[in-house]
Amino acid sequence: MSTPVTKVRLKQIEQLIAKGKRLDERGLHDYRPIKIEQGLIEKAEGSARIYLGKTEVLVGVKVGLGEPFEDTPNEGVLTVNAELVPIASPNFEPGPPNEDSIELARVVDRGIRESHAIDNEKLCIEPGKKVFVVFVDVYVLNHDGNLIDASALAAMAALLNTKMPNYEVKDGELKMKQGYTPLPVKSHPITVTMGKINNTLIVDPWIEEEQVMDSRISIAINEDGNICATQKGGSGYFTPQQILEATKIAQEKAAEMRKKLDW
Amino acid sequence: MVKIFMPVLFEKKQLVIPGELLAEGDYLPGENTYMEQNKIYSSRIGLVDTDNKKVNVVALRAFYVPKVGDIVIGTVIEVGFNGWTVDIKAPYTALLRASDVLSRPFKPQNDELSAVLAAGDLIVAKIASYDRAHDPQLTVGEPGLGKITRGQILHVTPTKIPRVIGRKGSMISMIKQETGCQIILGLNGVVLVTGKTLEEEELAITAIKKIEEESHTSGLTDRITQLLKESKVKVEENKIE
Amino acid sequence: MNEKPEKLIDKKGIRLDGRKADELRPLKLQVGVLSNADGSAYIEHGKNKILAAAFGPREMHPKHLSQPDKMVLRCRYHMAPFSVQERKSPAPSRREVELSKVIKECLEPALFLELYPRTGVDVFVEVLQADGGTRCASITAAALAIADAGVPMRDLVVACAAGKVDDTVVLDLYDAEDKLGAADVPVAYMPNLNAVTLLQMDGILTNEEFEKAMNMAIDGCKKIYEMQKEALKTKYMVVKEVGEE
Three-class SS of residue B211? Predict the structure, then answer.
């Protein structure tokens, strides 16, 4: 266990926020500097790494073959997993996924799935029998706050970088052809996470701010500006008005991010 | 500025639940209530009433929180190296140090603690110390405290114990007198009844249980007195037969 | 294989189970149903059947999980293997793990954690039969179980979902609507404090639809809250009336 943030520091953060400022001189609704690299893991079908401030997340995409689900015989399968590996923080312990990593994976999954980012029907090779299975593995390498947005952005970037092997069914047999096809991505959802500190909403909470905030809300926005996933987290609460305020901020910031990344 | 004395929002002894708004303005939060932005809310299920300007809720459902000086009855759970762990039906287990019980200096290697008190034994003790950072410490070093060897135990909601005691101990004295039983009321809701016969103990237990169920009603003292007298007559009749 | 119905809501605004857009499924709540738990409650909400039990505050096991300055709330949401159409393995699924977490986080704001440091309150929810909206029904029952255990609370927590089927925003989706509909927004709410303690959403909604769904869910919460109050008062009123002569 690492030493918790001191009370003096927490008070400092609270007081600054009350004045509309943050420790790293960002505005209340500003993201930290973002850098995204793609294709760094050649053995994966797709990969991307994001630096969101000092938070570092690596996402690898593996594309395999499998059977479709019974109720969607013409659709491929998407599965998202997240690992909070011990190197990322003194508070992460080795072992099977705990509730935090499961929540992270499922929130990232919902953003991609509900916005129909992947054209699932194009992942079908043989209806009812064989489809592509897209494994998205989120690997948190350094935790400096806001793992949700970092992971969601990196996952999206990794999917955009993903190439699937070509298969065809010839004479009832599955054969691999030459060449690759880019994964059919038809839309780019963006998730915006806000923390609440004494009734002020801040975008992209940094790790020390996460220790002060009483709750957080993550909202995924699709390309039409509509809401496709939401998750409140933390032990505090929001008034309904604060939630509506959060959705407006999320839409603003998602549009900005989309422009910046050219998605 | 004129002080506006707003009326309370409930009837006397109305049943309220957690979160119900009880009063606004110039009132003070009492038992089982809390205040937020000048409004007083209930924090437990119970019956609400005012005492001057204080709004109180008598909880119908609550657990015992230790207080220094309280007499409690507990069960020994574990025999440790230098004392015993005791279950006093509270969120915290209590500790009874060996040094408190043994009248001579305590030698861990030689002294067999389980010979003095073993798991399952009942004790009457007093809370010697307790704070937020430490589990309650018990003492049996006063007259009337120590291991219990006979009698019957009954459990009463801790919030009802004051009613069983009665004003200036009137209720409990009456029960003791009419039943001839020795009764120790642990403030943690555990009651020990020791009588000469089983019938006497049963009578006392029935009376106490009735008080628990009807604790918030009026005329209770009379009904209990009646119950005890009627039962006593029956006991006498049985003896004659 | 079940056939997918063409429309989930007809021209007259009646849904497949006969309800109007803003109608709740039938609800039944009972408090104090398990004698070994410190507090308990049972809920039937539509075809959902859920039992909730609360234990504590008590010493935590393992001890190292306790906090020196506050009480810890632990929550386990679990579905019985026979609760759903296809038998579900009794091992906790990822969904159950996530739901356990969000349910805990939605109940915590109602508790005075600082009052009993170094202790824990354990809440267990067992879904005996599931038909959509189990997390909301679980929360409604869990809050009653905690109050029934005598743990002080700022307010009860009540939950209800709203969503969209076809193009209509509707209240309280059941399983078929949840699976085939366009969006689902579960909300947990503390009615006296106007506080939203759980909010999730999946599907696609415009801003206006989201606002409408959230407000509809909150209205549903307020109606269910009245039933929670009744359930608590029913159990404790019996206690009160015994003495009335």
Answer: helix
